[in-house]
Amino acid sequence: MRYNKRRGTGKNKFQYVCEPNSIKIVAQIAPSAHGKINVTLYVDEREALFGSYRVQDLEVETINSRVATFCDGLALFTDEDIQSYVSEDKSTLARHAYRFLKEVRNKLGRLIWKRS
After folding, report:
1. How far is the C-alpha of 17 from the C-alpha of 85, rounded, in Å?
2. Based on CB atoms within 10 Å of each CB, which residue in 69, 84, 102, 107 is the most buried?
3. What pTM was estimated for this model as a whole?
4. pLDDT tens-place string over residues 71-95
């Protein structure tokens, strides 16, 4: 199923349930740029990390795939990477996500990503 925001159909925001549940991920179709998805990771409702991805289509599977890519990138981080690339006010939250994120599921419970 394809979501077309320009015609006002479908959704433009997708929320993901994480293990542990103190972490939440939201993927949103960028409002002004066709073919761009913004992925934000929250720890205790505070923004910790953000990623932006260009995509060919806005299919649900594509959005899920970009969320998995975002999580794969997080799993490859080191503490030094977080200190270098994440602002100081978000680094503690980002380190928490790096250390503890185990699984990501969509709202229906389907597994999107799991730490290897």
Report:
1. 25
2. 69
3. 0.86
4. 999 999 998 999 898 999 999 999 9
